[in-house]
Design goal:
170 residues; mainly alpha; 0% strand; 5 helices
Length: 170
């Protein structure tokens, strides 16, 4: 069987997330003692990209896994991996919400010391959690899913995700 389209799609999204996390970590590293200047083009670009990269795209990715993939694992006798990854999704949600909220205000008004402190704390914690989560999915989830899919199931899952990305309802 050729490589799974759905697994390749999820892998590509993982790689995009890793690249965004690296950008975020670079900004945190550049501004350890002071908040980013409003004229910093890299910080402005990151804040512009934040709602898409860690908002809509990540939510759609989490929803697809929780609605389509984790139940499949449970039906095949492996509920533990899906349960663990769902718990991690839930643990990241408050950090994502805080980061997106503070980031939206900062994009409009710039950072002050208090907002930068909030952003920096949420981003630092989220970067660690998200990096570990992506690694877990790459090393554990995707190989199990790829092994369990036949061509028809893979095509069906890909069609669901491609057609509903961002709009999967629970």
């Amino acid at each position: 069987m050729s490589p799974s389209r759905i697994c390749q799609t999820l892998h590509d999204e993982h790689q995009s997330t890793v690249l965004f996390v690296e950008r975020l970590e670079a900004m945190l590293g550049r501004y350890r003692a002071v908040c980013p200047d409003r004229d910093d083009a890299a910080a402005a670009s990151l804040l512009r990209d934040l709602p898409h990269a860690l908002g809509r795209e990540l939510r759609a990715h989490f929803d697809f896994e929780e609605v389509q993939l984790f139940p499949r694992l449970a039906q095949e006798g492996d509920p533990a991996l899906g349960a663990l990854l769902t718990e991690e999704h839930a643990a990241m949600q408050p950090l994502l919400a805080r980061l997106l909220s503070v980031g939206a205000v900062a994009q409009a008004q710039g950072f002050d010391e208090a907002s930068w402190s909030q952003f920096r704390a949420a981003a630092g914690e989220l970067c660690g959690q998200l990096s570990a989560h992506v690694l877990k999915e790459e090393m554990a989830l995707l190989p199990v899913i790829e092994e369990s899919l036949d061509a028809e199931s893979d095509a069906g899952l890909y069609d669901i995700y491609a057609g509903n990305c961002g709009e999967i309802s629970r």
